[in-house]
Automatic annotation (TrEMBL):
UniProt keyword Transmembrane helix present: yes
Intracellular or extracellular location(s): Membrane
Keyword Membrane found: yes
Main localization category: membrane
Domain Sodium/calcium exchanger membrane region: 5-144, 171-310
Record membrane topology: Multi-pass membrane protein
Gene Ontology terms: biological process: intracellular calcium ion homeostasis
Protein name: Cation:H+ antiporter
Single GO cellular component term: plasma membrane
GO molecular function: calcium channel activity; calcium, potassium:sodium antiporter activity
Length: 311
């Protein structure tokens, strides 16, 4: 039992450190390409900080613990929309761009609703996964197409805070080192978490929705809160929303195409909560294209209530 807990702790540490290195390298490359803030948040940072979910879900699914794989994604997305956006708004009110309200949040809502519908029969088939992945390609096309227009109108690269730009070779090294740590750490994490859950008699679904989801969402939380505090709210909201879209469409899409998933412990309540969380963020974003501190407090309170009901 102690060894398994040690595996979980070491796994989380490796995953978080690896995600940090991967994101640093990826953002450095994006900065050289002069990508707008919101686009970096929706693509590079979102993918980098979603790598823990991807590696954990893929390895969980390959090992037959599909409830852990899906629970990780559903729990992470609820964590992103309610706690990460909520805490980020508490740190500093978040300015939401019109394109985010009109395109990015609706896309996250459609993705969540589609997942809810697909899970009604208790399975995510290869066909379901294929549909999700095609939608991800469409989302990426729309995002990158919009980036060209934004780039022509404004120069919104991430602030470097006076630091020297990272060398290209170092960026590549950090990306590779980050990926290695993510894969190795995820393996340890899944092994340890599954064994601990079995020993305690807790279902894989609950472990996935809480401990695993929280652990793999720490990179998003740290990235968004720091971005909000520095005034880069485009990165903060883009990271949370981009991660949600990436988690459902890309991660479950790729994972499901490799190995179909059967759901046992993920309930309609959990999937409905996923949809409700995005709707709340969307509603709050409509108010002057800004999420105020009190709205952040509401999102955080809803998350705490959900975890209480779950446990």
């Amino acid at each position: 039992m102690l060894l398994n807990i040690l595996f979980v702790v070491i796994g989380i540490a490796l995953v978080l450190w690896g995600a940090d290195r991967l994101t640093d390298g990826a953002v450095a490359v994006a900065e050289k390409m002069k990508m707008p803030q919101i686009v970096i948040g929706l693509t590079v940072v979102a993918m980098g900080t979603s790598m823990p979910e991807f590696s954990v879900s893929l390895i969980s699914s390959l090992k037959g613990t599909t409830d852990l794989a899906v629970g990780n994604i559903v729990g992470s997305n609820i964590f992103n929309a309610l706690l990460i956006v909520g805490v980020s708004a508490l740190v500093a009110p978040m300015i939401i761009q019109e394109t985010t309200v009109r395109k990015d949040i609706p896309f996250a809502l459609v993705s969540s609703t589609l997942l809810l519908i697909m899970c009604l029969d208790g399975n995510i088939s290869r066909l379901d996964a294929g549909v999700l992945f095609v939608m991800f390609l469409i989302f990426m096309y729309m995002t990158l197409k919009g980036a060209k227009k934004q780039g022509a109108e404004q120069e919104a690269a991430v602030e470097t805070g006076g630091k020297k730009e990272m060398a290209t070779w170092l960026s590549v090294v950090w990306i590779l080192v980050g990926l290695i740590c993510l894969i190795g750490g995820s393996n340890l994490f899944v092994e340890g978490a599954t064994a601990v859950a079995t020993n305690l008699g807790v279902s894989e679904a609950v472990i996935g929705l809480t401990i695993v989801a929280g652990g793999t969402s720490l990179p998003e939380l740290a990235t968004s809160v720091v971005s909000a505090r520095k005034g880069n709210s485009g990165i903060a909201i883009g990271n949370a929303l981009g991660s949600n879209v990436f988690n459902i469409l890309a991660i479950l899409g790729v994972t499901g195409m490799i190995t179909p998933m059967t759901l046992k412990g993920i309930s309609s309540f959990d999937l409905s909560m996923l949809v409700i969380s995005i709707i709340l963020v969307w509603l709050f974003s409509f108010t002057k294209y800004k999420i105020e501190r009190w709205e952040g407090a509401v999102l955080t309170a809803v998350f705490v209530g959900y975890i209480y009901i779950l446990l």
